[in-house]
């Protein structure tokens, strides 16, 4: 068992190594960056998956600081490769991080961007004393430091700094940019999307396009923002998302790395718990665990796993896209919550402003943000998708609760679900009617009303997931039931629910009878009976618009 400190929230490679924190060796990443045929690499990954630490490692490896940084890599994988002696400590480095540039308005955002530029110029302020800079270049440098540079001139700040450094060191420059898309997310959410896109396009293109002083450029973020909106004209850009095999083991922990970490902290007996809660990511065919949550769990060793990762983000965009702003609760989210898969097109390049109008864009957004995982590639752009683990399922449950809270008093929901749990089907019927009237609009019921009712009830039953395993549209007996509730305490009653729309030729009573016959004839209760559940409540729901009728036995 090790007594090394865990690097929770630590993203400075030098500090981590010098203070002997626990480190899972990802230094082979350096060799892959050097060997890559792409001069500029964009590596989008979900937040808290080690992007900043990896960029910090690249900085400490490449940068010619006058200090001997070889010691930082002693005994690590990269030391074994010939690129180590060829490239370590040989280059000037520009390191920019936009992770804190998330402001409420464009004016504050622009000031935040200027600060990022200022700090990097200030880090290299020794250049002002060098005779490699011309007088007008020294003036530009001084204006950045003093904050007197006109706004429009910041477009060239990255390009100019790389030129100054390249000339001073007589070596090409390594440009490292962390969380490049954080200001873009903020701009989308707060209404200054066009301004931030325009700034980033000019700023990045200036520094990365046809830059003769550039050795390598590495950018990280969560999403690949569409090329035409930010990376126009960058023909030497290689994009490696979580769908690609390249670089797939360098962000997050692999299964063997996770098993070794738990073993090192004497927690091997909890590996199965950790797997169900924090693994499930699929990066280019490799099973990846969420590193933030694994470190938190190992440090705390709690009685029960908890959702550490989901509590570190502003999920406003996801909540708005998935459940609000005119978008009704999706049946797909209900399906995902139960552990089922959905098949959707996935676009690895996202135009943020199309998220609310392009119905299918949300699935790409959720995948690349870490809220879904790929299961199988169906064709060149269609994937089978699934919720990766229990931790992420927790956030979907909360999303649905918030949606219902906006539409209906949670007291009504609690009363309704409690009635179901206690077998009071009459009260369940009264409360369900009340909820349907509050939540449904006739607009919702166009198209496939059975699916709408199904999704609605499924969403409400999220409130009961502590006591029941909720399943839907699965095989049991000789057919597919609509909803089945399997109690976690097998001594309690199980529940089967079947929905039927009342058509023109039939009465509600006839429809209820047909639904109940279907439950019996197709033996939907078979799965519950096989689990040893003695008491099973069968519920038929007939509906027409907002009117509904219930029968049970």
Automatic annotation (TrEMBL):
The residues covered by the AAA-ATPase-like domain are 7-231
Q: Which Pfam families does its entry note?
A: AAA-ATPase_like (PF09820), PDDEXK_9 (PF08011)
Query: Matching InterPro entries, A to Z?
Result: AAA-ATPase-like_dom (IPR018631), P-loop_NTPase (IPR027417), PDDEXK_9 (IPR012547)
Q: Which domain of life is it from?
A: Bacteria
User: What is the name of the protein in this document?
Assistant: AAA ATPase-like domain-containing protein, nuclease domain-containing
The organism of origin for this protein: Desulfonema limicola
